[in-house]
Amino acid sequence: MSRRFLHWFAAAALVAAHSHAFAAVDVNAADEAALISIKGIGPAKARAILDERAAGGPFRDAADLAQRVKGFGGRALERLQAEGLEIGPAIEHAPTSGAFAARGLARAQARPAAMAIGQ
């Protein structure tokens, strides 16, 4: 019984290590910690990605990322993609702060109660 448990534990550890090593990280949705989890991206590069994404919007594709963020040449970007970095769809997300968010909150508060709960 003990030997069977050890085999099961070893298999589970191997699967966990494999899934962690190849976890995909979308550059258009990731936070700093997720970007740093990719081998080859440190805190400075993660910050550069986040700053550029905030300034110029989501990245359209790998070429857009390479053009906008210094240090992402062809081979470096290929290596990072092999490590799990993905460039997801360049969808503009709704603002979560500022005037637009306040306007959305005001609209939600102005709705009748029956409408707000989906009736």
Automatic annotation (TrEMBL):
Protein's GO biological process: protein secretion by the type II secretion system
Span of the signal peptide: 1-23
Pfam families documented for this protein: HHH_3
InterPro entries found in the cross-reference section: Endo/Exo/Phosphatase_dom_1, RuvA_2-like
Protein's UniProt keywords contain Signal: yes
GO cellular component: type II protein secretion system complex
UniProt keyword terms in alphabetical order: Signal
Superkingdom field: Bacteria
Coiled coil: none
Name of the protein: Competence protein ComE
Species of provenance: Trinickia symbiotica
Organism classification: Bacteria, Pseudomonadati, Pseudomonadota, Betaproteobacteria, Burkholderiales
